Amino acid sequence: MKNKVFCFLTTICICYSLKVTAQCNGSIELCNKRFNEVAFLTTHNAFNCQEHGFNLPNQTWGITKQLHDGVRGLMLDVYDVNGVLTVYHGYSILGSMPLSQIL
Length: 103
Prior knowledge:
Mean pLDDT: 83
Helix content: 25-40%
Distance between the termini: 67 Å
Shape: elongated
Number of strands: 5
């Protein structure tokens, strides 16, 4: 009976531990931190914006304004087009620009 109680308590502790770390992004040290201390505002296809005339834009404003507004993570789709680093989302026909102009 003592072994069963021990196994039960061990299982409870392991399950609780897994639940806590899953809630804390995999690290118990993060549990006491505020959200803004462990996460960064990130924009998907940050370059793909209405401001620069992209078709079907993901964003309204370009990277400069996004950074000014507090965005700290930029997701960029960068391709090598004839030796020029170029950004576009999926199909260049929807709009593309050299990475150097975006940054």
